[in-house]
Amino acid sequence: MPASNHSTVNYDNFFLTGIPGLKDLHIWISIPFCLMYLVAVSGNGLLICVVAVERSLHEPMYLFLSMLAFWDLILSTSTVPKALSIFWFDDVDISFGGCVTQLFFMHFAFVVESGILLAMAFDHFVAICYPLRYTTILSHSVISKIGGVVVFRSFATVFPIVFLVKRLPFCQTNIIAHTFCENMGLAKLACADITINIWYGISVPLLSDMLDMAAIVVSYGLILQAVFRLPSHDAQMKALGTCGSHVSVILMFYLPGIFTVIAQRFG
Length: 267
Hints:
By secondary structure, this protein is mainly α. It is built from 9 helices and 3 strands; from the N terminus they run βαααβαααβααα. The chain has helices at 26-53, 60-77, 80-89, 96-129, 134-137, 140-166, 183-187, 195-227, 233-266; strands at residues 13-16, 93-95, 175-176. Strands 2-1-3 form a 3-stranded mixed sheet. The longest helix has 34 residues, at 96-129.
């Protein structure tokens, strides 16, 4: 229920509309959503279990892959189940606390995954440029510390968004035109100045991701230099093939995320 522009309403619940303009197609849209979620859960879950059980896979590359799989599960599970409940059961209601929790874990997991992708680029860099020192540089202790730093950095970056959202008074509407709660989508419903929400919500997480991307680009620049110095053409192709799959994952991860941030800021 919308409220007057001059009065504050403490909404206990918000309503997610799903995909605007496509309500009649929700049941059909849910099919690829469901299939992709099942693939993500089963694939990532299987990867985590295999790496955990098989001791021969306790190598830096596979440990980073299992970390990425775990946080991908967190990211997808924070958004897709609620979207499916909207598509299937018209379950559009979500509590304010649930909304804030969802947006936190969504942004948190995204920034964590960005940091893990950077760690994987560093892993490739060490493996190709310093192969004889690989196991010394990337010991299990170092990998654990890298994982801890990535999670701490992400928490410190994203957690202030929770306070910035919870401080806002809402006096307009409690209808969110989306399938999930997102920082700017929720902040735009407030009847207070949200300038700090806009700039923090965009600049800080985006800056951390851009720094990660810049470091990844530098890493692969150094990797390419090392690869093209290899005397064997087969060795060059093998090294490029190993890095190519990682670059594809990086592009699939960052491009949709950047588009979403820009759309939320200017859309």
